[in-house]
Amino acid sequence: MNFELSEEQRLMQKTVRELAERSIAPRAAEIDRSGEFPWENIKELARHNLLGIPIPTEFGGVDAGFVSHSLVVEELTRACANTGFICAVHMMTAVALQLFGTEQQKHRYLTALAKGEKLGAFAVTEPGAGSDISSLQARAVLEGDKYILDGTKCFTTNAGQAETYLVFASTDKSKGASGISAFIVEKGTAGFSFGTVEDNVGLRASSNGELIFQACRVPRENLLGSPGDGMRMALASLDRGRIAAASMGVGVASAALATAKTYARQRVQFGQPIASLQAIQFKIADMATEIDAARLLTYRAADLADKGGRFTREAAMAKLYASEAAMRTALEAVQILGGYGLSREHPMERHMRDAKAL
Question: If we measure between CA atoms, which residue out of 331, 287, 288, 297 comes closest to residue 317?
Answer without folding.
Answer: 297
